[in-house]
Amino acid sequence: MSRPPTLEDVARVAGVSRATVSRVINGTRNVDPSIQETVRAAVRTTGYAPNSAARSLVTRRTGAVGLVISGAGEGDDESAYRRHVFSDPFFGRVVDGVIGALRPRGMHPMLMLAESAEAREQVVAHLRQGIADGALLVSTHGEDPLPRMLTGAGVPTVLFARPARPVPAGYVDLAHRDGARLAAEHLLARGCRRPVTICGPLDVLAGQERLDGFGQAMARHGLAYVPCAEGNFTAASGEQAMTRLLREHPDLDGVFAANDLMARAAAHVLQEHGKRVPQDVAVVGFDDSSAATAARPELTTVRQPVEDMAGEMVRLLLAALESPEAPPKSVIFEPDLVIRESA
Amino acid sequence: MSRPPTLEDVARVAGVSRATVSRVINGTRNVDPSIQETVRAAVRTTGYAPNSAARSLVTRRTGAVGLVISGAGEGDDESAYRRHVFSDPFFGRVVDGVIGALRPRGMHPMLMLAESAEAREQVVAHLRQGIADGALLVSTHGEDPLPRMLTGAGVPTVLFARPARPVPAGYVDLAHRDGARLAAEHLLARGCRRPVTICGPLDVLAGQERLDGFGQAMARHGLAYVPCAEGNFTAASGEQAMTRLLREHPDLDGVFAANDLMARAAAHVLQEHGKRVPQDVAVVGFDDSSAATAARPELTTVRQPVEDMAGEMVRLLLAALESPEAPPKSVIFEPDLVIRESA
DNA sequence: CAAGTCTCGGAGAGCGGTTTCCAGCGCGTG
DNA sequence: CACGCGCTGGAAACCGCTCTCCGAGACTTG
Q: Is the entire prediction scored with pTM above 0.85?
């Protein structure tokens, strides 16, 4: 098996110069139609495919973007963390949105996990080497140092969610407070008077804002205090939180969970304790992920358009690549309430 | 913002030649320790990072592998398909295993979806251009043309699961029949006498073998006929299948589902119909995915070591890259029975 | 002590593309 | 008809790195 054909080979077969072949392939400049045809024929007979490394070397584009999932490994087993990450339907939606936006541009996402200090260094090092054109960063942790590390290394970066402390990078985010307010008002409208909430981790802005928004909306309607138990967006934590809340507030009649995974787990716990959902207790989730429709009853939830948001990340990143000097942009999405069976 | 420093810059600062710097960085050959230190210092002061495109051009290695998910888009909405794919915990485990094996080698997976004929062409085209060093292919469809297309294009390829028709590519697989047998024998040992099965799509070898294995094991114990309903590995299909089986065989006392997602859905349906799991009906799943432990009751299931299998795919691919002429290898894994609550 | 061997740094030839620059040609215009 | 311009193809520089080949010096050895 000899080496694959190069531009040179095609040029020789077509009887033209390398430059001309290049121009035909890239449609860079006008080329005589008959020559074009000759070249194309030569490409076909040789089975030529441009070498992307060589191309990248001169164009300074790889056609790849790093999709970096950064989270709190906290010294844990790495594989356990990875398993947890990828079992959350949220990331699947991010991947979906990213691929959808990248594909028409002939680009691909390169998956990178940064769950430990060492992994973070690796990710930055690789990205600095130009293995990808930029980074899309999804942090599951509040005080993630990665955004700074990346921008500091000169890697074009776009974040999912506004970082805890300002970073010179674009981002997309959701109006979490508005979403939580929608949930609160829906529960109130259903006649719910003793709501509780299972909030997300409070070191994550999204977790905090969903809690705040819910509390404030309730407060505006005279419910000054809403019992709250903290979860970490996993089903197991939702189960625990619900169990505790139910023990401490046996007469609760509404639950707002900061994501669907926890909401679904909460509904299970309620049912196991003989509460009917939604007749006895109304449950509202957050995200509108696949967990919402997989749950029984199907979850009423606050929709976060993750796919669209991920697509927008791609657009922001590509824009940043176009004009490196432009200041980073951000886009905030508005949530919707999706009413199903659970509330 | 000027261009990043090159090897040349480092060499100038260190007062040595480009070759020497390269050698120090790659540890390729003995270099005088004092010179090494000088070079390293120069690397630090310049903030040098090797350009991976340039490196790839000469080494003919990119450090990336394509992780191709190929499935039956059948003209469906592409995004819907992507969503479905990524909501299945199975793929998360594949990604987990792949990343785990790739990381120590400083490599990364490039995610590529091939759900339509057009997408398949694109994937092959990109891979032919050397965007990645090879492909790890996970097909969800029996008659997938992609394996042939890839090997035909000279792309080093390793498959997850043996292809329906032979292809000159390595693969990893599971002894599905043995797994199904374990499930059957466990159900029998529990005293189950009227088992049914929710099988996977029969155009997928895995689906067929799990069904065969279950049926044969039951037959060996005198149960010649096992009612079966076909699902497609999704929760929704599992629900439908269970509903039908329950209607046609109200006295069933055991269910074997070809994956956990369907098993979990089946358990739900059973419970909604007033059957206790496992007291009235025992349920056994397949995979031991996160769905198994998330279910209530937790699922007894046949463990498929997906992470290990994915890791082995990486190893097979790298071996194939080392010695391109060697015949493709395959590795078959053995399943285990994991006993939890549902059976 | 001479000759051979070993070690290690430098020069330079690629790797396979893109793109600038230049030259030739056909055309329109004054 | 002479001139200039636009269009198109080719030559060659260049992207940044690796690696072979070569030569100089150090070291061994008879």
A: yes
Would you give per-residue pLDDT tens digits along chain B (343 residues)? 578 999 999 999 999 999 999 999 999 888 888 999 999 999 999 999 999 999 999 999 999 999 999 976 554 566 677 777 777 888 989 999 999 999 999 999 999 999 899 999 999 999 999 999 999 999 988 789 999 999 999 999 999 999 988 999 999 999 999 999 999 999 999 999 999 999 999 988 999 999 999 999 999 999 989 999 999 999 999 999 999 999 999 999 999 999 999 999 999 999 989 999 999 999 999 999 989 998 889 999 999 999 999 999 999 999 999 998 899 999 999 999 999 999 9
Closest Cα to residue B314, out of B135, B176, B112, B81? B135
Judged by a CB distance cut-off of 8 A, whether residue A91 touches chain B is: yes
Check: CB of residue A128 under 8 Å from CB of residue A154: yes
Cα separation values, A328 from A123, A168, A170, B4, Å: 22, 7, 5, 21
Look up residue A267 and give its DSSP letter.
H
- Number of neighbours of residue B211 by Cβ within 10 angstroms: 23
- Minimal-distance CA residue of chain A relative to B97: A79
- CA distance, residue B156 to nearest chain A CA (Å): 13
Closest C-alpha among A39, A95, A90, A87 to residue A66: A95
- For helices A89-102 and B89-102, angle between their N-to-C axes, nearest 10 degrees: 80
Instruction: Give distance CA A45 / C1' D6 (Å).
Output: 34
